[in-house]
Amino acid sequence: MNTLDIQIEGRVAKVFLNRPEVRNAFNDGVITELAETFTRLGQDPGVRVIVLGGHGKAFCAGADLNWMKSMAGYGWEDNRADATRLAEMLWAIYSCPLPVVGRLHGDCYAGGMGLAACCDVLVAAEGMHFCLSEARLGLLPATISPYVMRAMGEQAARRYFITAERFSAAQAREMGFVHELVAPEALNAKVDEIVALLVANGPAAVKACKRLVQDFAGREITPDLRAETARRIADIRASEEGKEGVQAFLNKREPAWR
């Protein structure tokens, strides 16, 4: 890998954007490598959690300027093909069966906000800034919008999509985009704390919980939906992991997966 630094530490995979000289701005190479990496790690039976972060002074400043220059003369078909690759990369992160913890610091701009919004848990350093800057360039955050709107809420998206203004980590925390806000020197410790919580839980249960939210959020509570919830809990209760977890709890011992 040239644009990513991937570290496997036991059951945890840490994926760092590794282009600090351009504040981890992404190009077609980063997009390809992120899609391939999250697809591969999501299928790795030895990995339980993925941490997504960035080396250097920023998490991700959005699109690389040189990459943008190369696309300046693209026609409609080329632009659609390029945007489709970005959309597939974002989907690879969002749909990854493993929990993804975002480690955010410095700037998180434009497409970087799309990467962050695809994570399941976001930990941010105090003093960092966010920005959906596309409208300032006469563009719009279309490809990242489904994930960003889910993460920050429709009302906040209505403002920040059209104003393209910067907002602070504290504001991101208030709107629910960021889950944890800590001092920069405490960022790694807080990420490790959340990772430890995830690893302590049943691996199949964590995957099922992640999928549960993705499948059911915003849906009408119909008879079919209620039946599906009953089927899912029955499935996991009858599974080996479910049986082991309940027996461990009743017998006051650690479950096998720990």
Describe the structure concisely for a colleague:
By secondary structure, the chain is of the alpha/beta class. The protein has helices at 28-42, 65-70, 76-94, 111-117, 145-152, 154-163, 169-174, 187-200, 203-216, 223-237, 240-250; strands at 4-9, 12-17, 49-54, 100-104, 107-109, 121-125, 129-131, 166-168, 180-182. The protein folds into two domains: 4-198, 2-enoyl-CoA Hydratase, Chain A, domain 1 (Alpha-Beta Complex); 201-250, no CATH class.
Per CATH, the class of the largest domain reads Alpha Beta
CATH superfamily of the largest domain: 2-enoyl-CoA Hydratase, Chain A, domain 1
Strand sequence of the main sheet, in spatial order? 1-2-3-4-6-9
Query: What shape does the CA trace take?
Result: globular
Strand content: 15-25%
**How many distinct beta strands?**
9
- Class by alpha and beta content: alpha/beta
Domain count = 2
State the CATH architecture of the largest domain: Alpha-Beta Complex
Tally the helices: 11
Largest sheet, in brief, is: 6 strands, mixed
Whole-number radius of gyration? 19 Å
Query: Any idea of the CATH topology of the largest domain?
Result: 2-enoyl-CoA Hydratase, Chain A, domain 1
Cα-to-Cα separation, first versus last residue = 31 Å
Order of helices and strands: EEHEHHEEHEEHHEHEHHHH
| Model regions low in confidence, pLDDT < 50 over at least 5 residues | none
* Share of helix, binned: 40-55%
Mean of residue pLDDT values: 94
Oligomeric grouping of the chains: single chain
